[in-house]
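Colleagues,

Please find the record for the four-part complex below.
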Amino acid sequence: MLKSFASDNYSGIAPEIMDAIVSANHGHQAAYGNDDFTKEVQKILKQTFGKKIEAYFAYNGTAANSVLLKAVLRSHHAIICSDVAHVATQEVGATNNLTGCPMFLVSHHNGKITAEAIQEAYTKATFWGHHGSLPKVVSIAQSTELGTVYSLEEVRAISTVCKANQLIFHMDGCRLPNAVAALNCSLKEATNDVGVDILSFGGTKNGLMMGEVMIFFQPELAMEFAYIHKQSLQLYSKMRFLSAQFIPYLRDALWHRYASHANAMAKRLAKGLLTLSGVKLAFPQQSNQVFIYLTEPIIKATQNVYPFYLWDPKQNLARLVTSFDTTTQEVDHFIELATQAEKSI
Amino acid sequence: MLKSFASDNYSGIAPEIMDAIVSANHGHQAAYGNDDFTKEVQKILKQTFGKKIEAYFAYNGTAANSVLLKAVLRSHHAIICSDVAHVATQEVGATNNLTGCPMFLVSHHNGKITAEAIQEAYTKATFWGHHGSLPKVVSIAQSTELGTVYSLEEVRAISTVCKANQLIFHMDGCRLPNAVAALNCSLKEATNDVGVDILSFGGTKNGLMMGEVMIFFQPELAMEFAYIHKQSLQLYSKMRFLSAQFIPYLRDALWHRYASHANAMAKRLAKGLLTLSGVKLAFPQQSNQVFIYLTEPIIKATQNVYPFYLWDPKQNLARLVTSFDTTTQEVDHFIELATQAEKSI
Amino acid sequence: MLKSFASDNYSGIAPEIMDAIVSANHGHQAAYGNDDFTKEVQKILKQTFGKKIEAYFAYNGTAANSVLLKAVLRSHHAIICSDVAHVATQEVGATNNLTGCPMFLVSHHNGKITAEAIQEAYTKATFWGHHGSLPKVVSIAQSTELGTVYSLEEVRAISTVCKANQLIFHMDGCRLPNAVAALNCSLKEATNDVGVDILSFGGTKNGLMMGEVMIFFQPELAMEFAYIHKQSLQLYSKMRFLSAQFIPYLRDALWHRYASHANAMAKRLAKGLLTLSGVKLAFPQQSNQVFIYLTEPIIKATQNVYPFYLWDPKQNLARLVTSFDTTTQEVDHFIELATQAEKSI
Amino acid sequence: MLKSFASDNYSGIAPEIMDAIVSANHGHQAAYGNDDFTKEVQKILKQTFGKKIEAYFAYNGTAANSVLLKAVLRSHHAIICSDVAHVATQEVGATNNLTGCPMFLVSHHNGKITAEAIQEAYTKATFWGHHGSLPKVVSIAQSTELGTVYSLEEVRAISTVCKANQLIFHMDGCRLPNAVAALNCSLKEATNDVGVDILSFGGTKNGLMMGEVMIFFQPELAMEFAYIHKQSLQLYSKMRFLSAQFIPYLRDALWHRYASHANAMAKRLAKGLLTLSGVKLAFPQQSNQVFIYLTEPIIKATQNVYPFYLWDPKQNLARLVTSFDTTTQEVDHFIELATQAEKSI
């Protein structure tokens, strides 16, 4: 049985989630989200994120991001985001295609962008008025693509810049659970309370079979969104099998348990590897993704046993991702393999 | 426990399919379709539809149709289809939006369009040359949106018109299993062998949790499609849970068993209802959708017990859809309720 | 020197307009519409169409229509228009491409559609709620593509239906001057006063070198339109050469003089031809386009001398278009040629 | 009478070009490019750029760029260009919107990008395969947005990288005449002979009323382009008035005369200003755009007399643009005003 540190997408479905799926398979239910499970989870989402939210489901993270962005953008707008943003680099331009908008990239520092850099990008982009695209959205990932986590103060500062410039604030939260577990706050405190306007809230990477939630904190941004939702290929006919997963995930705080576990495993892994010579972190380890410079012998000794990706092969920069199902044994075994490799040189 | 004749999307997951999903949840698997299940199902798809096909998965039927069409169209093209085509009427313009193309609608007869009418539409649309959109695709649904089934001869005739005019032939097969079960032929005979170029092959409406296959019978039409697939939001990270469903569905011919059963239930239902006065078919009953004129007393007596949709409330035109899980008891009970309603007038 | 009845696009530039172009070519002027001529014409446009309008220039009619429609539509919307609408049939789907929206076609009667038919189309399109595109615009051409003219009452009735259903009312006025000349009212009375929301106001077909005006009667519909205008390729750097044409065109009512003349020539032409046997109008002659059934001998005798298009060659249906520069001599000569052809049979 | 150094778009129409427009206004001509002038200019274009080219007209430079790029791109592709590319920064995302593609920006050096940097960007962009947009076009401006000129060797090197990576090579030649005049070669040598695949060839900024030519050096890239041309709003009904301008422009090498003059004026202007203290070039002066750091007194003394733009007000970075109609007197007067301003400090 393969286990890996390749991606939280390599892992399967957490047992409580699978139970929810199986339990939902009983008799007929109205299609397209008019089922009992979806109604129930809508209530829970409001309890979790705020009473006034509007929430819709998406099949995957690329969809959650790009369809949310489509909802609030017109083609003469632009998006400000980091130069390693998943929306800019890893989604085959899904957002560009659905919106017709360009992205104005801000250089990241440890995967993050600052309020100041966003203001600078906005000012530069609007210098020639209507001869250039009008920035309308700022998008950040929490946790970031490089495994770091924005502090609540950093998020609030970005929100402040957004408000000052009439920019809508999007959070790509495909790994929000890991960030929130690291921040030791509630989901609402990490999003609604610090000024996020639209959120992609992840499930797939954190033990679900599939599913993300697209959340509008300002209902007026969701106007006519039911049409956009279906047009953008996200209206699941047998919706109950998606929404049923989110019931225990949110109600029983499984999102927190899974993410905390993954974070802890990442911490243990980083700590163990950092004792080895030639190994150092590329970015601070703050969630469940560890970006770490390894050595060739370590890579050779480990990658075949526990597959993982090299982010930059020339520099032996590895990305090690832990998951809800990563075990202490696996982490320790990985460290052991690396330790032996180092010694055998 | 609710049962209905509202839609084959109201039904859940067939037991063999659920078993396949549960069984796939074991250890890690490479993401994005590089897993063992997807590799296996790709082989089976080639055995089923033809050695040279290229096949990709979609989450739902609207996606399968619109993403396939996006692959082969550019914005100066047009699509010829029927005026009741799902792609034209029930997908919030997903195809228009993804392709930028208009649809040229041909009046249906019993849900079908003829080769002659397609030729006529093509000739008319091209009269002014490059001042109008160039038709490039013909799209038909098999079975049709109105429950009827094209004969193989009818499909072949449409294919011939397509070839003669350099039109790509798309089949919306969200209910292809029901059509093929009715035609008593193989999936390949109903598609590849009669000249279909691109096919949306349905699973969701026929007992799967979710999933459709986008099939290119001419591999050159699929050039660079891996990019389009991901951009169009259809690249499922934990793909194994989708592809695993198709293994028994195809290998064990479950598609045929489920569809045949649904068709038989529809036939039984139609036959029973047609004995009642004031009841008549709107279109021939040929698959698992029965479009039937009922009477108000019948509707009142049945719709609350077994929900269904009125296609045209003014005319008491009902759509009754059967499914893999429709039982003889339910059908007979529905007929009984209708019969009692008629008598009590 | 060729003269024709092929199209008002075959004719050149009226002398007063050419003078305006030549006069504008003096020294430097700020680019992109910040020139003196554009400022002047903006004033005149407000005097002509209403104080609160927002007006922008387009290079051609297809642009005026599709860019205006882009401004007010999002991709989950739809347009209701006639089945012979230029936007639907003769613009290579420019509007479909720029908006992503489908068009719902209503059968025309003499080129026109009725308020009732629009209501019916709207009701039908919205029956399944957010499973279909939401109609948001009604578009009519005035004068129509078939040369007929909506009465002010007909336009007002359509406007009433639009208001009742929250539909934006677009008028394709590429030949509005001919319609208004026929209606014997002012430009404002024919548009603003009868409830038109957005207007493509034509110049090219009525003696200008090029140029149409995109007019928003409700300024809030023009929000951020300066960006859309440039993005949609319509921001002319040396704008003065376009706007300068509209100064005499509007200020000196040249639009009315040219259009009245063209209409009169069309009337004379129709009247003369209708005396011949086998000749009859396809649609009422009300502006500068005459759709008329001719005979083969007449076509042979005239088409080489004065080129024109056959709208339907099988039926000998010709479209004869007059222009600001059509002369009485040419009209009478055409009739004479036709008359001789008839006699010689 | 205003004269300026603000933009070559502030200038009017050169006298020879205006004569051509006036002369074309005679009788009727077939519309949409089927006129005698367009046929004539098509021949001249082939003589100028190569026998196998396909050429179409656009109204303006943004259109020429974005419509050409639309012709060769699909939405899963990307464009590699400089971070000051006009297509990326000054066209309100017209290309993003028409193609759905992102742009991958390469840092410029003096407005130019190198073959090496392009290769690096390509390699980086394709690292994750079909998870990112596939670069398909490299776009450079010649002369650049910052007034510099690529040598033929530099262009050839970029072409070589393009061929090696199956990238289509686009040249934004809105000021190509100025570059070619500076390079002292022929238009063909600067484009076709050094491997350019698609070219936007400018007229508007070089004395024409309006008009650019979209040129495909490989005819297969222009497949079905007539449809795209019209759909993209560039099919001018009275085309003769655009194409007639290009006849003397090309036949009589007016493009060269106008551009050489503008370049010479820019050189004279730069030379004169550089004698003043505190004045220095931001980028080498190689064509008709001078990017130059001035002093506040100089700006105050000159900008009101001869308007120009500050590219970076904080740094007193001015852009001074000369034109076909810039006179020695104006240049010298500007220098004199600046010299006096400096002295009076």
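The first strand of chain D starts at residue 54 and ends at 58.

Comments are welcome before we finalize the supplementary table.
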